[in-house]
Amino acid sequence: MVQLTNPNPLVELFRHNTWATLRLLDDCATLDEGQLDATVAGTMGSIRDTLTHIAGAEERYAARFTGQYPAEELEEIGFPGSVALRAMIEASGAVLGAQAATRPATEVLTLQRAGRVEQIPAGIIFIQAINHATEHRAQIATILTQQGITPPEMDGWTFWEVPEAAQ
């Protein structure tokens, strides 16, 4: 069983968030091109595009704290492959977890978003990051099930029970 490593529940939520996205990515790495390009009504797009979107968004959430924005947005570049996507998700997950450990949710950040300057509490970025990834993982799970593929378990109970979650 996984051991919780931080008394801050938000840090553990980010550990789970990163683990769940990586677990899904690893499962999707075994799909063929047609399966990766599949989509169904009510989802954001193909599995490939949605995984890229999750990783790109998490890079931007992390950058809102660090100020280190990527030169190009991942969605403009396109799917870089599972290995590169995994490294990006791990890196942004580490930044978000570290920020959750040290930054008060009430701290207000001045950010550029959608072409305008906004004052946004850190907690809103944390909430958005978790919610965004969760919604899109569910969409990918829907696309998988519509293809007759069982998606991996990504819930909190599984996170607690599986040994690889501790890594």
The geometry reads as globular
CATH fold-level topology:
Four Helix Bundle (Hemerythrin (Met), subunit A)
Task: Give the CA-CA distance, first to last residue.
Answer: 11 Å
So how many helices? 7
Number of domains: 1
Classify the secondary structure makeup into a structural class: mainly alpha
Content of β-strand: 5-15%
CATH evolutionary superfamily: dinb family like domain
What's the level 1 CATH class? Mainly Alpha
- Strand-and-helix sequence, N→C? HHHHHEEHH
* Physical arrangement of strands within the biggest beta sheet: 1-2
Number of strands: 2
Question: pLDDT below 50 for ≥5 consecutive residues: which ranges?
Answer: none
- Integer average pLDDT: 93
Radius of gyration: 16 Å
**Percent helix:** 55-70%
Please summarize the sheet with the most strands.
2 strands, antiparallel
CATH architecture identity = Up-down Bundle
How would you concisely characterize the structure shown here?
The chain is mainly α.
Write structural notes for this entry:
The protein has 167 residues and is mainly alpha-helical. It has a single domain, classed as Four Helix Bundle (Hemerythrin (Met), subunit A) (Up-down Bundle), CATH 1.20.120.450. 60% of the residues lie in helices and 7% in strands. It has a two-stranded antiparallel sheet. Strand 1 and strand 2 form a beta hairpin. The longest helix has 25 residues. The model has no long low-confidence stretch (mean pLDDT 93).
